[in-house]
Model the fold of this input.
Amino acid sequence: MQTTTRFYVYMAFVWMYIAIIPKAHSQGLSPIEWTGYLRNYTGVLLQNTSDLSIVQNTLNLNLDHRSSKGGIHVNPTLYQSFDRELEWNLREAYVDVFLPNLDVRLGKQQIIWGKAEGVFITDVVSPKDLREFLLPDFSEIRTGITALRLNWYKGAHQLEWVWSPIFTPTRMPESSSIWAPDTPLPAQVTWDYSAATHTASIENSELFLRYSLMQNTFDLELTGGYFFYDDPALNVQRLPGSTIVRPEYHRVSMGGGSVSMPWKSFVLRGEGAFYSGRHFQTSNPAVEGLHLEKNNLHYMLGVDYAWNGLRLSTQFIQETILEHEAGMLQEAHENTLTVMANKTFLREKLGVKLFSYIGLNRGDALVRPTLSYALDDGMEGILGANLFLGSSGRFGQYNENDMLYAKLIYHF
Amino acid sequence: MKKTMATIAALMMAASGFAQLTGSEVMKKVYELPTGTDQQGQLTMTLVHKSGEKRVRSLQQFSKKTGMEEKKVMFFLAPADVRGTSFMNWSYSDGRDDDQWIYLPALKRSKRLSSDSKSDAFMGSDFTYDDLGERHPSKDQHTLLREERVGQTMCYVIQSKPVNPKDTYSKTISWVVKDVYVGLKKEFYDQDGRLLKVLSVKKYDKIDGYWTILETEMHNVQKQHKTEMKFEHVQYDQGIPDSKFTERGMTI
Done:
């Protein structure tokens, strides 16, 4: 279906809802609850202040209907940007059924796991939208997957089983985007997307399992999954006179967990995962396709502290490739630090926040200060900056993309 | 006749001495006032700026006592930008630090909070998280200062100084209704010993057989702003399931 046609079908559904609600209400049925926000987001690059890097208007709707036996949730979004086509999406659309000690959720849904903030270790169920790197709100970076989720619970214990028959990959930036990552590929390559999708089938389905426990001494999650890794491995074929690059998604197995616990005035957090069968790029021309299958470890240790309204948090993250080989583009140990400080003033009208990623291997960083002000209940203005430090590495590669931005958000 | 009068006077003195409670005994009675097995209701806070500007926050609150634990979960209803957020607190009568979690719908997960945030303002109001909870009497040293009337109501006046000198307040002074043991007024003093806030109870009543504070006002006398709080649709002993106070309960 054409994008325009799909948009009109979608709008027809929205107007149908609007038509139905008053009738349902008059018949004594509980109404559908509408919430959401409208946001303008305007950003300018510091290197060239005449260039607007983003001018975007967003409508985010949440439609909910709930009873003791179940409910529905629909989250349509509409993005209008100055340099893109009108983009609408159903971030979530699912039905809930509540049975004794068992919740069943079917449909498109965001599923968020783990205790780490700003990094993805066991949080592997919902794929990511990285078209603007890690800059959007995390609720927007994570996209929904179509899945059946069963959540069995008893007391403080929960066992969650997720089955998704449809593989959804990470959305990467266009090669012309300022957020396209550095690659060692030659300027002229031929892209072959024949292996970039997997048809929806039982064979290609993904499975995830999570056990969680919340109690007074600690919170625990144990997680596992058998799925396609959402980021592509690039299969590079150098032929005489041309280079063909084929993005591929490979099966991985993951086992891990996370824990958080209070200790004196602190909250200690930890999260770790072992991945079997991940693929990493190499520059070694003797390696077929220029990628290698390796196992890897990814973990985080973090601590939170709050004092007099000031919230502080820091995390150390290490990603280790086991049996690392010379020529691999990613180092054997990639170390990252995150730092967060947050405080509100004027009875929570004014908020000051700093969040920073620091790449310890290359000394690069992303520093994100923000200043928010509640103009009224539900209406918020935000001024912020994204500052990239260093000249290489995950963050330093974007050192020409330093940005100032403003957001005006109206929640309803 | 003289002997009879002396006997009556002696009996009155004995009775008076017998009825004279200590500050600790009064505060223990306040703490042990029956509150049912569980309680639910809707809390509305109106933040009033010194200019008169008002901002309203509302939430649905559920609480349940089980042995030494009191579990409470709050679902934020308004304003729109915090709707769907929930906050859970487990407090312990043996003096252990509370356990606290917050669920943010945008992030779709619950997060454990540091218990040191108890002195933070609750939703930007003049109440701290600590002010909204029940403070165990063993955390303070209590002194009965006097008895006096607040309006038509006779009250005990109790001064409470924290055992831990690093606590938020250097002392509080409470006016407790005699024979009912409901707090009617409370003054909070900052670490420099200056009056910081005054809590006034505007309305209290018996609901389902339990004394319940229904309307209060917290006035920050240093910053000249206040918060009015109403507790409505209060119900007791409705059999709130334990599952309400779990990770799943915070999200459903």
User: Anything to note?
Assistant: Chain B touches chain A at residues 47, 49, 55-56, 78-81, 83-84, 90, 92, 96-97, 99, 101, 106-117, 119-121, 123-125, 225, 242-243, 246-248, 252 (CB under 8 Å). The CA atoms of residues 40 and 235 of chain B lie 5 Å apart.
